[in-house]
Write a structure and sequence with these properties.
This protein is 2% helix and 21% strand. By secondary structure, it is mainly beta. The longest helix has 7 residues.
């Protein structure tokens, strides 16, 4: 999760959505799914605005003629949550039906009246302050929303679902153990009954992955590892006879983008570990810092372009016309 790379390489991995075990047994949130697949209007229900992560709003009340008239309407103090030098406030608030939802660097969540700033409910994470495997500050990059719940990843590597009306915990799923270097900072993406999220810890010997969970229960549906094992596509890019692939980094700490028409989910992958000394991991080290894709479970991941840098930007998708079709 380093911010100290000399250069930013735009990288992503694309994976087929219909993995084995992810059968259509979920009760999806049709309203949220519709909002996610359309241009953003008054509601902002995911970190990037919609599934493309373009962060574009169709609202027209504020434009170039009146933007200079903007001024503060209210200020809310979040009761000391995330207040201190070790914390960072990086989340984009979600807004639905006039209520704003915010998460702080301590993984505490607040619901506020968007017109007045009044706190409607609060959820305190109770996260242990002794966590010692935080790379780059205590932070949370945002929430996901769907099926009457808010979803967040925590620095202790748990994914938590909260009742959107009360803030009460609905379920909690441990993705890994923070003592082994893992954590979660990315804003999850909800779509069609599934919550997608990454993992951090590239500096602490983790094996990166994207995890898909059943939104209703928190059950892990599948994992897509960003570091292939021996015998898997890309596994021969790691030193043979070693376990370096299992602790080589390649974390995911930005919100994925998703294209339901193509059945693909796109996400950026971080640096290999160790990041400054690659002598022990000779080879191309897929899929660290590489442009890769997979459209079905059977297709091979394609090789990337670099293994020396990390990705600090999120993924945005855009359909463009071509001579034969729209892509």
């Amino acid at each position: 999760m380093r911010h100290r790379a000399q250069r930013t390489v735009p990288i992503f991995v694309a994976l087929g959505l219909l993995f084995p075990g992810a059968a259509s047994v979920r009760a999806a949130d049709q309203e949220i799914d519709r909002l996610l697949q359309n241009p953003v209007a008054k509601d902002w229900v995911t970190n990037g605005g919609n599934m493309t992560n373009q962060r574009y709003s169709t609202l027209k009340q504020i434009d170039t003629t009146n933007v200079k008239q903007l001024k503060g309407a209210w200020m809310a103090r979040l009761k000391g949550s995330g207040l201190g030098g070790k914390y960072s406030l990086e989340a984009t608030p979600l807004v639905k039906d006039g209520i704003m939802y915010m998460v702080t660097g301590n993984d505490d969540v607040f619901a506020l009246d968007a017109k007045t700033g009044q706190i409607l409910w609060e959820h305190w994470s109770g996260i242990g302050q002794q966590i010692s495997t935080v790379c780059c500050g205590w932070l949370n990059r945002g929430l996901g929303m769907g099926e009457g719940m808010l979803f967040l990843g925590q620095l202790d590597a748990n994914v938590v679902a909260l009742d959107i009306k009360t803030g009460k915990e609905v379920w909690r799923t441990p993705i890994e153990d923070w003592h082994n270097g893992y954590g979660i900072t990315n804003a999850p993406l909800y779509f069609d009954g599934i919550v997608y999220g990454g993992i951090t810890g590239g500096e602490f010997g983790i094996r990166g992955r994207l995890t898909a969970l059943d939104a209703k229960t928190g059950k892990i549906l599948w994992r897509a590892y960003t570091l292939p094992a021996p015998g898997e596509p890309g596994g021969d890019t790691w030193p043979t006879g070693t376990d370096h692939f299992s602790r080589g980094g390649a974390s995911i700490w930005n919100t994925p983008a998703l294209d339901p028409q193509l059945g693909l989910v796109y996400f950026a992958v971080g640096n290999c570990g160790p990041d400054y000394d690659g002598s022990m991991r000779e080879g191309d080290n897929l899929f660290c810092a590489s442009i890769s894709w997979r459209s079905t479970p059977k297709q091979a991941l394609m090789p990337g372009i670099s293994r020396r840098f990390t990705t600090t930007s999120g993924i945005t998708t855009q359909r463009a016309p071509s001579s034969s079709s729209t892509r």
